[in-house]
Design brief:
The protein is mostly helical and about 230 residues long. It is built from twelve helices and no strands. Helix 2 crosses helix 3, helix 2 runs antiparallel to helix 8 and helix 7 crosses helix 8. The protein starts with a helix and ends with a helix. Keywords: 4Fe-4S, DNA damage, DNA repair, Endonuclease, Glycosidase, Hydrolase, Iron, Iron-sulfur, Lyase, Metal-binding, Nuclease. GO terms for molecular function: class I DNA-(apurinic or apyrimidinic site) endonuclease activity. InterPro entries: DNA_glycosylase, Endonuclease3_FeS-loop_motif, Endouclease-III_FeS-bd_BS, HhH-GPD_domain, HhH_base_excis_C.
Length: about 230
């Protein structure tokens, strides 16, 4: 698809879903540090088990310094509700150590310094952390620090691809940049696009048997026009 056609589709999608779901204010769903660690725990893990692992960890070790100083085996055991607890335990302790050594933190474990960082620098710093990918980094920077980035999860990717905004050859990694280039560089607009496509992918444009009869996007959707109609 030509870029101008994809641009037309994404802006129309944004407009339709704003009307369909209602405009949202940009509000953090949880404080920044928890957003980061919880998103790291969420990889291949459902929300209930992610929460269980997070609270197990803090109840067992008290605070982030306690988590950092914990024996690896004990931390992995506390994270058992999440998938790959050993890998996540190792990554969390590495991340905490890096934060503690950050000059701006003066020995404290914090990510507050990200708020004043340039968007690209903050994105580069976060994605260099073990266990932190582009999706985790962009979620944190958009939700908590109102940076103009575009988080792409499985729902945002699937819906954007079915509509025809993304090509079949585009990857989720590339989609962060492709979608961002076509949307207004306003954190509130980016947040609404992300959340609306997330909801749409969960409720209507589901992976198996999408509920096209309930979808307000069928007139511009490639999947509906080429496969369903």
């Amino acid at each position: 698809m030509k870029k101008n056609e994809a641009q037309r589709k994404i802006l129309k999608t944004h407009e339709i879903l704003n009307d369909f779901y209602g405009r949202l204010e940009l509000k953090p769903r949880r404080e920044p540090f928890r957003e980061l660690i919880s998103t790291m725990l969420s990889h291949r893990t459902n929300h209930a088990n992610e929460e269980k692992a997070y609270f197990n960890m803090l109840e067992t070790f008290g605070d982030w310094e306690g988590v950092l100083q914990a024996k690896f085996e004990d931390l992995a055991d506390a994270l058992k509700p999440a998938q790959f607890p050993g890998q996540k335990a190792a990554n969390i302790q590495k991340v905490l150590k890096i934060m503690k050594e950050q000059p701006a933190n003066k020995g404290k474990i914090s990510i507050g310094f990200l708020e004043k960082m340039d968007t690209e620098a903050a994105l580069e710093w976060l994605t260099a952390l073990p266990g932190v990918g582009l999706k985790t980094a962009t979620l944190l920077l958009l939700f908590n620090y109102h940076k103009p980035v575009m988080p792409v999860d499985t729902h945002v990717f699937r819906v954007s691809q079915r509509i025809g905004i993304l090509a079949a050859t585009d990857t989720p990694e590339k989609a962060h940049t492709i979608l961002l280039e076509m949307l207004p560089k306003d954190p509130v607009e980016l947040y609404n696009y992300h959340i609306h496509l997330l909801w749409h992918g969960q409720k209507i444009c589901v992976w198996r048997k999408p509920k096209c009869e309930k979808c307000p996007l069928i007139k511009i959707c490639n999947y509906y026009q080429e496969v369903v109609k």
